[in-house]
Amino acid sequence: MADFFTGLLVIPVLNIRLVVNIREISHPFSVFSEFIVIQVMAATTFSICAVSLDRFTAIVFSMSYERIVTTRRCLRVILAVWASSLIPALPRIPSQTSLSLRGVLLGALLIIIVFPFSVIAFCYMSIFRAARRHRRQINTNTVSPQPPRQVDKAAVTVAMVILIFLSSWIPILCFSVYELVHTSRVSVCKDLRFRLRFFAFSGLLALGSSVCNPVVYTLRYRRLRKVLKSLLCGWREANRSGN
């Protein structure tokens, strides 16, 4: 859902701001656009955390998965993801100076990146240990309740998610830290256009993770591929019958 809102809301809002050329920090549209960007980005990374925890539960606690992951708990997690995504975005509303805005953006990026990465890394390491344990059980002819191929597949999937996450978010985090540290100093990047272009590029790269994650999960999970294929085939048949 967060990836959907990235394409539906965030990218059009940013394009409008660039076209209209709104640069005032206190402008209502600036406040709105930056609030939406922070909130949706937080929801995106927190959603990745939720998916990683789901895979972690499915692999490490496979025998109790259906009892732990219920429909009601999934709904609660979704609500918690969107409610918690407001936390890093709310401080943007009263920020009216360049220095306070940079502090807010840096704090938001730390919450959006560091916390989710810690959770995802923990899930990956746990899945990796489970995969290694299952291999030892196979070598010793010990019965394993979880298919080793499924464990290895989950480990590779989470590794791909971590790689995409780091490559997408590290550039904008480094740029934000650099800008905050050099606020009162002579910046090495004296060209403002270069800094703005790099910020735009790193921001688009971070938003690009919203495109990559659904592709990864679609390619890695056979059940999801079958559902999408059935939906696509049903849509084609409906168009043919309509014509």
UniProtKB/TrEMBL annotation:
<feature type="domain" description="G-protein coupled receptors family 1 profile">
    <location>
        <begin position="1"/>
        <end position="217"/>
    </location>
</feature>
<dbReference type="InterPro" id="IPR000276">
    <property type="entry name" value="GPCR_Rhodpsn"/>
</dbReference>
<dbReference type="GO" id="GO:0005886">
    <property type="term" value="C:plasma membrane"/>
</dbReference>
<protein>
    <recommendedName>
        <fullName>G-protein coupled receptors family 1 profile domain-containing protein</fullName>
    </recommendedName>
</protein>
<comment type="similarity">
    <text>Belongs to the G-protein coupled receptor 1 family.</text>
</comment>
<dbReference type="InterPro" id="IPR017452">
    <property type="entry name" value="GPCR_Rhodpsn_7TM"/>
</dbReference>
<feature type="transmembrane region" description="Helical">
    <location>
        <begin position="74"/>
        <end position="93"/>
    </location>
</feature>
<keyword id="KW-0297">G-protein coupled receptor</keyword>
<keyword id="KW-0472">Membrane</keyword>
<feature type="transmembrane region" description="Helical">
    <location>
        <begin position="154"/>
        <end position="178"/>
    </location>
</feature>
<feature type="transmembrane region" description="Helical">
    <location>
        <begin position="31"/>
        <end position="53"/>
    </location>
</feature>
<dbReference type="GO" id="GO:0004930">
    <property type="term" value="F:G protein-coupled receptor activity"/>
</dbReference>
<keyword id="KW-1003">Cell membrane</keyword>
<feature type="transmembrane region" description="Helical">
    <location>
        <begin position="198"/>
        <end position="219"/>
    </location>
</feature>
<keyword id="KW-0675">Receptor</keyword>
<keyword id="KW-0812">Transmembrane</keyword>
<dbReference type="GO" id="GO:0007186">
    <property type="term" value="P:G protein-coupled receptor signaling pathway"/>
</dbReference>
<dbReference type="InterPro" id="IPR050569">
    <property type="entry name" value="TAAR"/>
</dbReference>
<keyword id="KW-1133">Transmembrane helix</keyword>
<dbReference type="Pfam" id="PF00001">
    <property type="entry name" value="7tm_1"/>
</dbReference>
<keyword id="KW-0807">Transducer</keyword>
<feature type="transmembrane region" description="Helical">
    <location>
        <begin position="105"/>
        <end position="127"/>
    </location>
</feature>
